[in-house]
């Protein structure tokens, strides 16, 4: 099969999903192999949030001085036991380990590294660990992640109170939601406050239009690549910028939404 093919061009069979992590799920040392994944994952997260020049050493030392290494080992052992008692496909294993690592990273950075980070991360995001909120809880989760009270960007969570002209422009220029699609948040990125440029989070997707860029919509299950740049983000390769600190919180939120929709 061609390297980039998802299906066989001859018989149509789907390419088998490969295990992304270097572990042996049924092996004697699966717990140690899972625990060892935390450190490269931490380095990747720090690079994403703080840039390639970040000094990892203070964070690595904090893993031990805070006692968080013990938590990593306990959670890894629980995950290894779960895998042995309930065998999973490679796709399921990928999601299980990804969720474990992301939850551990969020907890470690929020609870143990506030003094090492140049920006605060909301403590409330920890209440959503290992959770896939129901539709009625999604807005609460989104607001906990974004901590809008600490942001200066104009945002609206009650569409009935949003100025009619701004709402009309958002719907005209980038918020192409279905009639019954619930809208949780609209952020205005336009210079004059017209609402013609901005972003929106609904129950199904992220919508946005950046200045001088085409309007975009990405459904949460289609969130494949979320990458931080020094002053903006790339969401599935497309430019997005809501401000430095809000970008960081949106980075964490979008990773959560992408994982949640695949659970």
What is the N-to-C order of secondary-structure elements (H for helix, E for strand)? Answer: HHHHHHEHEEEEEEEH
Count of the separate structural domains: 2
Approximately how much helix is present in the residues? 40-55%
Number of strands: 8
* Biggest sheet statistics: 5 strands, antiparallel
Query: Proportion of β residues?
Result: 5-15%
Largest sheet: spatial strand order = 1-2-3-4-5
- The geometry reads as globular
What is the rounded Rg?
20 Å
Structural class: alpha+beta
**Spans where pLDDT lies below 50 across 5 or more residues:** none
How many helices? The count is: 8
If you average the pLDDT, what whole number results? 90
State the end-to-end distance: 28 Å
Entry summary:
This protein is of the alpha+beta class and 263 residues long. It folds into two domains: 30-118, no CATH class; 124-260, no CATH class. Helices cover 40% and strands 12% of the residues.
